[in-house]
Amino acid sequence: MSEGTADDVLLEARGLTKMFGSFTAVENVDFAVQRGELFGFLGPNGAGKSSTMRMIGAVSPATSGTLRVFGLDPAADGPRIRARLGVVPQEDQLDQELTVQENLWVYGRYFGLSRAQVKERTAGLLEFAQLSERAKDRVEPLSGGMKRRLTIARSLISSPELLLLDEPTTGLDPQARHLLWDRLFRLKRQGVTIILTTHYMDEAEQLCDRLVVMDHGRIVAEGSPRSLIEQYSTREVLELRFDAHDHAEYAGKLAGIGERVEVLPDRLLVYTEDGDAAAAAVHSRGLAPLSSLVRRSTLEDVFLHLTGRTLVD
User: Which of 3, 2, 30, 27 is nearest to 14 (CA)?
Assistant: First the structure.
């Protein structure tokens, strides 16, 4: 956890566990979120990220362990916690028959805001989400990116202290994803504490101050994106593709090149501090890959090292 006083901790979990019958979705996890940071849960589908978010959002009770949000217990103080949260679920839950601005008006009234307050905040949020020109349009024909921006705008109508986003950019094209990233950066600069889940490594690297990597309901690593890469990977990775049905047969021929070699179905990954030197060493052994690529290490390399599989497995 990053340095800070106890007053800076907005959320803390210790031994948090969630079970559904005999299935353990989240197993004995510990983490804390500081006020004002953007904290992430990174992992594949089924890792336990969404189950954790639902416990944080005070809509799904923990099976065991302790969880405090704003210093409150979700089991006893759910309504008080939810009143201070903004939530962006995986699936948009907008009213398709209403206009863009009407979706914000109706949602704002749920929080007891006056009509004047709702209309004032709606205007500002539509500008923030770059939807002002679509204010009177119905939701149904909007693009996926516009709907996600509207969902985020709606979650902010109550001026929440903590914003929860569950897989916020799944299914969006690259341009829409980057626009959403920009909106989240702006919110963070405004002092909103943000927690998000994602299985996109680049999203976690770009957005998160700190994150935890989850797999099969457990936290397998925690830290800033850069510190995790430095701890669990090398500076560069050499990707090699050979004309072979099974790349494993080439792994032994690369022994001693780089720090380690990972075998994937369609390529070999050579972890090294100098990718160009590693590529030269490969060719000096008389090996002729169909393609070779030197790139920097990423969080997916971290996940592969920790779990033996990629984030998209």
Answer: 30
* Letter string b/e over residues 79-94, b meaning 16 or more CB atoms within 10 A of that residue's CB: eebbeebbbbbeeeeb
Prediction pTM value: 0.88
The token duo for 307 is 């779990």
The verdict on 165 and 283 lying in the same domain is no
The reply to whether 220 and 241 lie within a common domain is no
How many distinct structural domains can be found in the chain? 2
* Domain membership flag for residue 118: yes
Digit-by-digit pLDDT tens for the chain (313 residues) are 444 555 699 999 999 999 999 999 999 999 999 999 999 999 888 899 999 999 999 999 999 999 999 999 999 999 999 999 999 998 888 999 999 999 999 999 988 899 999 999 999 999 999 999 999 999 999 999 999 999 999 999 999 999 999 998 888 889 888 998 998 999 999 999 999 999 888 899 999 999 999 999 999 999 999 999 999 999 999 999 999 888 999 999 999 999 999 999 899 999 999 999 999 999 999 999 999 999 999 998 998 898 877 766 5
